[in-house]
Amino acid sequence: MSLSLACTGVRVNAVPGWLLVLLGAGLWGTAGTAQAFLPSEVTPSQTATVRLVIGGVLLGFFVLLLRPRTVAPSSVTMKRGLIALLITASAVSIVLFQVCFFSGVRATGVAVGTLVAIGSGPVFTGLLGLLLRERITSRWMTATGIVLTGLVLLLAPWSGDPVDWHGVLFALGAGLAYACYTVLARLLLLNGVPGETIVASLFVIAAALLVLTQLGEDFSWVFTSDALVAALWLGVAATAIPYFLWIKGLASVTAASAATVTLAEPLVAALLAVTLLAEPLTVLGAAGVAAIIAGMVLIARSPGK
User: What is the value of pTM for the model shown?
Assistant: First the structure.
């Protein structure tokens, strides 16, 4: 089994779709740790803009390299106007996810914000997936329930601190936005639109939209040594590469199952926080890790992925 970017001539088709999504989610999970190295005055919108601009440029360049190998136009069953509309809607959803997620985490804290945003994603995706006539199976519901239970054990604040409900609403908005662009991307894939074209178009448009909203903002902090490394990691390792893996995996995995597997993201984020940022892992947190892994195994064994 080999895994690499298609432009190197090594195929990813031999790798199970759920595993590609899982690898992508693992890389997404590094974003929180990378943000810890950004200056404290950086706003959520600035973080999202830098992340998407770097990732969008890289993905756009990558598609230019892949252009001779993309799927023949005859295999696409959608009209160009509808494709453009769906890609634009997906790009707007990505922008909303980034801004809502960073805003929700900042308002209500990393634990609650991450739990609500990432945990609500599979629920919204499963419901929206009905529009694609994807069945909500009992195995999916069981796996999602196990993983959500694990996330509660891993991330929930047991200190009794008050919850900022505005932050919770932002986080729910992030979960809904994630569901929207996952289902729309899956719809485009099912109609023959090449995955590389989809993901690159999404991020080029999303980055352009965010840049327009940030005109006049000070981004000089990007060029400081620590911030530059963190920004490059966010754009390349936590955006471009994982979204490439995600779109490849989404071609053979239902939107609902992909969303459940993506719940590995906060697991990776929590483990990095423990190992790199010296945050403690409680007994309940360890039980949460075990539950998340069990849910992932259940999804991997599902014949209707």
Answer: 0.75
